[in-house]
Amino acid sequence: MTTPKAASRSASLTVPPPVLEISGLCVDYGLGADAVRAVHDVDLTLRRGEVLGLAGESGSGKSTLAYAVTRLLSPPGVITGGDVRYHPRGGEPVDVLAMTARELRAFRWQEVSIVFQGAMNSLNPVHTVHTQLTDVLKAHRPDMPRAGRTEQARELLSLVGISPDRLGAYPHQLSGGMRQRVMIAMALALQPDVVIMDEPTTALDVVMQRQILRQLVRLREELDFSVVFITHDISLLIEFSDRIAIMYGGRVVEQAGAAEIYRDPRHPYSAGLLHSFPALHGPRRELTGIPGSPPDLRAMPSGCAFHPRCPKAFAPCDRKTPPLAPADSSSGRSVACWLNDDHRPGEA
Ligand SMILES: Nc1ncnc2c1ncn2[C@@H]1O[C@H](COP(=O)(O)OP(=O)(O)OP(=O)(O)O)[C@@H](O)[C@H]1O
């Protein structure tokens, strides 16, 4: 791209400033007595330049969270509480939940773009890659001359590792991996600060998945954007994220650096997830999976929602929900598990 955002991320150990701050976010499906809570009191901060991984089994609330944060949630989904703040470069924080429709149109694509599950099938089959890439530019940069749009589209394709010669191709003339890269190119077209990727590569084979993610992480360094990367495959997150948040039953149950989660998962659910996917590198782990199934939102277990499946459940777990609390004073890790809480209720 011609004017990449400053690629000079500080190599110092200072914590980068936040770009997206989510606090106390609650999302329900339905209203009144029939409502179920799919996202429960989530606090999460995405920092500038980082890749934040969001993991959890199907139904844990990952996509609902992404839709809510970008205000793309459609009925019966309703945001019932909390706060989402976007911190523009050098500007005052903006309340995303209070944005008007017009503000939202500018916010999406330009500040935060999102690549959804199965995105590679959402390219329009009757238009060329050129038309689809330049349409994004035309809609948001109406003053850009036609030749400039084409030039930018060529650069975007090169960025994601596709020869600009393919600009005239229709989606069916491209492989699944290439279509996915085109979607990523579209998401990067307006140089957003944040790219949210919801299971972007699950339809691809493992080698292609990793190739695309490696490229994305390289681009993140070049173009200086932050990534929220959502998947149920925690081994992918360990490889590509800086930090990981693990969701269960709509709540974040553990949040820590990717290496910390890998070496020493503190929540029994995190440990279970780690033993559900083969790691590509490092020592082999025995794959044991997690017994049982994720909870039904209409009948959530009392206390910690994971307790019926937890090999380490003890007295307080079925009675009281553990808060997400700092686990180490130094590392910024937090865990919602009574095993890690010095202030746990009586075990009798
Ligand atoms: N339109 C809807 N109406 C009612 N409940 C819904 C709706 N969409 C999602 N849910 C429920 O909300 C919960 C969270 O779903 P969500 O899709 O956010 O989970 P997820 O972690 O992204 O799962 P997956 O990995 O399968 O996409 C699930 O229990 C799901 O059944």
Automatic annotation (TrEMBL):
Its main location: membrane. Residues 20-274 form the ABC transporter domain. It comes from the Bacteria. Residues 323-348 are annotated as: Disordered. GO terms for cellular component: plasma membrane. The keyword Nucleotide-binding applies. It is a peripheral membrane protein. One of its GO terms (molecular function) is ATP binding. Keywords: ATP-binding, Cell membrane, Membrane, Nucleotide-binding, Transport. InterPro entries: AAA+_ATPase (IPR003593), ABC_Ni/Peptide_Import (IPR050388), ABC_transporter-like_ATP-bd (IPR003439), ABC_transporter-like_CS (IPR017871), Oligopep_ABC_C (IPR013563), P-loop_NTPase (IPR027417). It is found in: Cell membrane. GO terms for biological process: peptide transport. The keyword rRNA-binding does not apply. Belongs to the ABC transporter superfamily. This is Dipeptide/oligopeptide/nickel ABC transporter ATP-binding protein. It comes from Streptomyces carminius.
